[in-house]
Amino acid sequence: MRYTPEFEQVVRAWSKARQKEKRFKHTERVVQTAAQLAEIWSPDEVMVCRLAGWIHDAAKDLPDSDLLHLAREAGIEIREPEVDTPMLLHGAVGYVLASAEFGFEDDRIRTACTYHTTGSPDMSLTDKIVYLADLIEPGRDFPSVGEIRHLAFQVDLDQAMLFSVVHTVRYLMQHEKPIDPRMIELYNVLLKAGVRLLG
Ligand code: DGI
Ligand code: FE
Ligand code: FE
């Protein structure tokens, strides 16, 4: 499917109507950052990254019960991490809502939305771009963000992914939150592929 700028504007308006103002501002920055990263690393996928950006948090304001219900209805796999933390489903459910609203199916957008919170061992370039854009958009402020921005824009997306995973796992451990095994699997896959941060 070829996406027009007019279609993007419709998706943007839908996304805006579904999010509180502060979150929508974050979404706008994610779209911009995803587009910048795509220009560098995957110029053919700029529009796909932008659309995934508009959709990625469209379900974030839904209550846990709605996330679980909609996910079940759509046949999305719900395992222990999602039962414990239904918030983890907001990306996958956002895609389901958008695809129903606009009558399209696009696995590139589906996986980018689905994996944007936890990552996954089998991420595409587009998935990585949206994951990183969500983490490093200009409104984000945490100690490692400058280094992740540097890696993502100037060095290598996989190194940026490894740094992000290390940062997020550390954050989740410090806050004694459960860690989705997909994030650990992603860490292992990156190491196995030879990605390193040190030396
Ligand atoms: O939706 P956003 O706030 O823009 O960002 P996000 O979709 O990356 O969600 C961030 C939240 O998700 C943040 O509070 C950390 C949490 N999170 C990320 N990975 C995991 C996780 N929480 C749990 N319990 N387990 C995870 O693996
Ligand atoms: Fe999110
Ligand atoms: Fe987000």
Overall pLDDT:
97
Q: What Rg do the Cα atoms give?
A: 16 Å
Unique ligands: 2'-deoxyguanosine-5'-diphosphate, fe (iii) ion
- The total strand number stands at 0
N- and C-termini, Cα separation = 43 Å
Q: What does this molecule look like?
A:
With 199 residues, the chain is an all-alpha fold. Helix 2 crosses helix 8.
Name a few traits of the molecule.
199 residues; 67% helix; 0% strand; binds 2'-deoxyguanosine-5'-diphosphate; binds fe (iii) ion
What's the short version?
This protein has 199 residues and is mostly helical. It has helices at 5-18, 21-41, 46-55, 64-73, 80-84, 90-102, 107-114, 125-136, 145-155, 157-174, 181-192. 67% of the residues lie in helices and 0% in strands.
Show the helix and strand layout.
Blueprint lengths: L4 H14 L2 H21 L4 H10 L8 H10 L6 H5 L5 H13 L4 H8 L10 H12 L8 H11 L1 H18 L6 H12 L7
Helix pairs in contact: 1-3, 2-3, 2-8, 3-7, 3-8, 6-7, 7-8, 8-10, 9-10, 10-11
Bound molecules: 2'-deoxyguanosine-5'-diphosphate and fe (iii) ion (2 copies).
